[in-house]
Amino acid sequence: MRAGHQADLAVTTLDLRDPVQAQAADDYVLGHEHGTPFHRPAWLLGVEEATGHPCHLLAVIAPSGRIAGLLPLHHVKSRLFGQALVSSAFAVDGGVLADDPFSLAALVRAAEELARSKGDLSVELRGGPAPAAHWELRENEHVGFVRPLAADDEAELLAVPRKHRAELRKALANPALRVEHGWEPRHIRDHYRVYAQSVRNLGTPVFPARLFREILARFGEDADFTIVYEGDRAVSAVLTLYHGDRVMPYWGGGVQDARRLRSNELMYYRLMSHGRERGMRLFDFGRSKAGSGQAAWKKSFGFEPRPLSYHSWSHTGQKRDINPQSVQYQRRIDLWKKLPLPVANLIGPFISRGLG
């Protein structure tokens, strides 16, 4: 439905602390075909509380008083990486949600004006429609992976290509491995231990533990953990979001032994079954860097990559240096991999806040 002409639209900043405004925003996101968990107030407030990056939720209000478009922008600040307005911070998707081109244009203008008022910041949009012709398009850097869930466990197993299916069968036959789904304190603790080790091994600083707690608490039943144990030791773990008909494993990884145990294969296979039991229809494996080992691993699991498009704008041309392909960034990764895990876990959260 068209919201009306450009002159009829007003752009305002919603107060996420106001339950009525937050609920109106949530209802709009949940009802929009392109809405994601990263547009929801649960995500926006969780990130703000855990990292200190304030969120400006721009909204187009139609003459009828209803919301006709949303654009959440976290003001990410970092001494190492610089500042930017990001939709949405720590997310792989986001961007403008709008009912029509007029609402889209109004939100884009408002974002540019906000960026100028904050000191000529750059603006980064992850996903969504192209904002305007003068914005920079970034594509082919990342790919996404989505496919329908199969009818049952056996069909899901057969949907995995033969070579990878053989690895999965080895994990299924291992009596020492067991899988749990839940959100108890021990699941939060075990997930963080596994995730922290996993990202350190990849050369990335771990996020603050509070970020995981805030997201889990605010999403309620729309989020949980899946953890694989070898005996009493957690070896693979993932925090999953559920949105509409999608299972969206998000923050996950495995310890050094995960490859030998094939515990990551087992974890995602059991999560597919868990999602099916929850009535989900699609399995969204998230994004990976194009050409990376992680992207190849997901493809070997039976998922076809699709290019993701991001957009950015800067009044001055200045942008943050957070491109993983840059030489400087690669040096940081190589250095981080060499840090002892306790040291990485101690200083990582202070650095990762600025990645956004």
TrEMBL record:
<dbReference type="Pfam" id="PF13480">
    <property type="entry name" value="Acetyltransf_6"/>
</dbReference>
<dbReference type="InterPro" id="IPR038740">
    <property type="entry name" value="BioF2-like_GNAT_dom"/>
</dbReference>
<protein>
    <submittedName>
        <fullName>FemAB</fullName>
    </submittedName>
</protein>
<feature type="domain" description="BioF2-like acetyltransferase">
    <location>
        <begin position="162"/>
        <end position="299"/>
    </location>
</feature>
<dbReference type="InterPro" id="IPR016181">
    <property type="entry name" value="Acyl_CoA_acyltransferase"/>
</dbReference>
<dbReference type="InterPro" id="IPR017469">
    <property type="entry name" value="PEP-CTERM_FemAB-rel"/>
</dbReference>
